[in-house]
Structures are given as structure tokens and as C-alpha cells.
Amino acid sequence: MRPTHTFAAIDLGASSGRVMVARVGPESLHLEEVHRFPNRPVRVGGTLHWDILALYRGVLDGLRAAGAAAGGRLAGVGIDSWAVDYGLLDADGALLGNPVHYRDTRTEGAPEKVAAVLPPEELYAATGLQHLPFNTVYQLVAAQSTPLLAAADRLLMVPDLISYWLTGKTGTEITNASTTQLVDPRTRDWSPVVAARLGLDLGLFPPLRSPGDPAGLLRPEVLAETGLTGPVPVTAVGSHDTASAVVGVPAAGDDFAYIATGTWSLAGLELDRPVLTEESRAANFTNELGVDGTVRYLRNIMGLWLLQECLRTWEAQGEPQDLPALLDDAARAAPLRSVVDAGDPAFLAPDDMPRRIADACARTGQPEPRTPAEITRCVLDSLALAHRRAVEDARALSGREVNAVHIVGGGAHNTLLCQLTADAIGLPVVAGPAEAAALGNVLVQARAAGVISGGLDRLRALLRTTQTLRYYDPAGDRTAWDEAADRIATGRGKEDGTCA
């Protein structure tokens, strides 16, 4: 048996955080969750914040559990999280208020303000980023002239903030930096032109790091609190969780599409250069930076947030649902009876999702789903259609052929969603691993530590031999999917006023 090394992956999602322990050798990879903790935003004074100190407490508790599982010694730590959000530090390194949640309303009006100075086509040509109203650039424009931003000496994206508290060293990891809409994906560096046009100070950001770069050592007080034996290096990984998740796609070759599923569905392709055409901008595709010089060419789709919010609403109404039983009932419900545009911004905010879905169906002349099973089937059919549209558009806009679709993340466990996606797209689907982000995180760490070697193809080959995967072949008549896709396109046009 070749020796293994133990790494900890801190993986922070929009609804929960977890710390995973991976034992990695040249031909072995075993991952286990040692600690999970909730991520509950808090509304204070009308503003929705992340409870960043509670998250940091969860991280410390998780590192303690990781140390216990590894006999007190870790070969390294890596951190990934969601994108776009940040914390501000003063000149002494103290946090200036809890980071604001991307679902907060403070960015209302900010996209219009930016467009008046920097038209959308120019902003896209410079940064290649999909228009989303909560992108970091809009958050910063919304925060201009506020006392907090005026007092700030440093801006750290969420995973970089956690890394700073663990090590005392600051840096800006590039895959997450690329979601700010302030990075040029061709140069893989900041865009001084965009920053100057918008009056934003790039000096707030510490130097850029790439995945695999050292990010410091755990501080003595962190070692003492977690019971770990030092030194423990912290390594920059693909700190945007989707960047790590794409590393964790067990593909052979490059003719694949991926769908990283969870609260969001991130559906697209891995490319070696960005697509910055006007057609790409109009299709709302993003060019985010990936590991090893890659580009994540993808579209953000509302994802399982739709179902998560339905479940939360039903529970609040005193009608909690058992998810496995609900999915079984949804599988027996009438297919494609009613569908909605899963990318509709109307579904972005939390609040009575079943009602909003029913209203969207009514507005487009479709039967209103009423039972939890009907609503769930509507959600999953709609997500499969959104996945289909994203993959087809990505192929057309990039010129890349696709022969298989990989579903990773939490949705890989949802057999109905996986089968519906295969049926809608008409391509085989490979589902798994569910913990792709954590696996991508530890693979980059292990390579930086010299435990494994090679490029992304080598890392993915290790996944194929060590992880459990499920395969779904397309079935059924695609005519019904074509008709449902036309219904969504017609409904989208009516609401936009672009067709009769």
C-alpha cells in the first residue's frame, strides 16, 4: 500500500458549510464528511447579511473534527465557497461589518447606473461575465459613498476572508476574483479600464493567487483551538466552489458538458479561451476562470433553489414533505403538463415559491400545478429544459461538440432530475460525484503537495477509478420536450413583449 496524505476541504455553500477529510494517494482517494453546519443569513435593519462569524466558528469546529479523524495532523487545508460576496477590512485588519448577502435588495438600480457609464456590450467585451444583478461590480457601485467602503483598506472575497483569519495572510484567488466582473478573462488579470470607468479602486484587492499557490500556514492560535499539530499549510484552490466542482467532473476527454447542481445549476463547457461575442452576451453566458488556465463557459440557472424554497414554504405552512416520497410522487405526475422559465428573475428572492410557480404558469396560459407532486414535477421538468437550453446554446456559441453531460453536486442524487435531463438533452448523463467541489478542492491541494501529479486529465482519471458514478441514457420521444421548450420561449417572449 502506498502511503496516503490527509487533507481538509472547507466547502461553504449558500445553505450549509461542511468540512471534509480526504485521504489521497497516487492511486487512491477517499472522502468523508466530518462536520456540517448551517449557513443562515440574518436580516438586520432591512439588510440581509451572511453570519460570517458563525461560519468561521463552524470552520474551526470542522478543523477540530478533521484533526481528530487524522490523528492531529493534516497535510493541508483548502477553502471554497460561493462567489461574488466579500468582506471589508480596515487598516488594522478588522472586519467592517458582516458581509451583505447577494440576495439583498441593495443592488436594485445599480445595473442601470453601471450601464449609463459603461454600456452592457462594452462591459461584456471587457470581462465576459453574465449579467446578474448581484455581481460584485454592482454591489460595489451600490456601496459607493457609504462609510464602510470609505473606511476600507482591503476587500476579501468570502473564501479569502476565511483564509485570512486562519493564516493572517491576504490574497485574492483568481477563480473567485473572476466573478467580480472586474477581471479580463483574456489576460487573467484585473481590468483597470472597467475599474476606472466605474470609479472603483482595484487597490482594495490583495494580489491575485492561482489554484495551487501557497496561502500561508495555520496561525498558532488556530492550531491551539483546533488541536492540530503544525505546520499546516493552507493552499489556494479553485475557491469559487464551481471552479472546484468542475475539477471534480470525472470526464474523459474534452467533449463534455457539465451541470454543477445545488442551489444553482451552473451548466456549460470547459474551454481554453473565452467567448466574448455579442451573441454570447445576448445569450447571457459567462466566462469565469477555472483551474489550470481554463475558462468556465456557463449559464447560471436558478437550480434546486426552486424546490428548496417550495419545501421551506410547505413546512412553514404546516405541510412538511418527505423528499424521497415527494420525488416518487412527482415521477408519477403528468410530465411536461406545465413548465416555467427556470432563469426568470422573478424566482430569485425567497417567499412562497409554490404560489409564484403557479402564477407563472397561469400567466403563460398553462394549467396551474396545485399539489406538491405537481409543483415538484413542474420544477424538475423546467430545470431539465433549462439544462437543455444551456447545453445547446453553449455548443452553438463555442463550436464545441458535446457527447456526454456530467451532473455533479447535490443534484446527482436526484435520479428523476438526472433522467429528465438526459431525456431533454438527448445525450447520456453521468451523475456524480455529489461532492465534486470538495473533491476538486483536495485534488488541487494534493497536487500542490506533490502527492499526485499531472494535469486535469490525470486528476479526473483518479476520480473515475475511485468514485461511484451512475449512468442515464436518454429515453422517450423528444417531440414533447421540443413542444415544452417552445412553450417557454413563447411565454418568455410574451412577458418581454417581443412576440404576440
Secondary structure blueprint with pairings:
Layout: E1 5-12, E2 16-25, E3 28-38, E4 42-44, E5 47-49, H1 52-69, E6 76-80, E7 86-89, H2 110-117, H3 120-127, H4 136-143, H5 147-151, E8 154-157, H6 158-167, E9 172-173, H7 174-177, E10 183-184, E11 189-190, H8 192-198, E12 208-209, E13 214-217, H9 220-226, E14 233-235, H10 241-247, E15 256-261, E16 265-271, H11 278-282, E17 286-289, E18 295-301, H12 305-316, H13 323-332, H14 353-363, H15 372-398, E19 404-409, H16 415-425, E20 429-431, H17 436-448, H18 456-466, E21 470-472, H19 478-496
Parallel strand pairs: 1-6, 9-12, 15-19, 19-20
Antiparallel strand pairs: 1-2, 2-3, 4-5, 7-8, 10-11, 13-14, 15-16, 16-18, 17-18, 20-21
